[in-house]
Description:
The protein is of the alpha+beta class. The protein contains five helices and four strands.
Amino acid sequence: MDRRMFYGAKPEIFANAKWLRANMTQSEKLLWSHLKENKLGVRFKPQHPIDIFIADFYCHELKLVIEIDGEIHEKQKEYDAGRTSELQHYDIEVMRFTNAEVMQSIDKVLEQIKIRIDKRRLMDSAL
């Protein structure tokens, strides 16, 4: 197993991630149906352990996390901002969408993700 793509995540984080994969929300299931099998040209993994966090979706190649924020996130904006900041220490970019955005405007969400994928690829090729 390539430990670099998990950034030192501990076994309990892997166990939690496994449970979350088996119990995805409706919005996570919908987005996953469009991300799986490299449908956007890159590999995303659902409920992926990164350090002490579990990213909803993670593309290791581009160091890109996609988070879907449910109602609970309205009450934990400060925690989410801190979490994003921690992930940025690993040069990981975080995109956030609400459940409503995913459920009501999946095409717009996918277009934004595609644009970000293209930008990350350009950044990688410039290095």
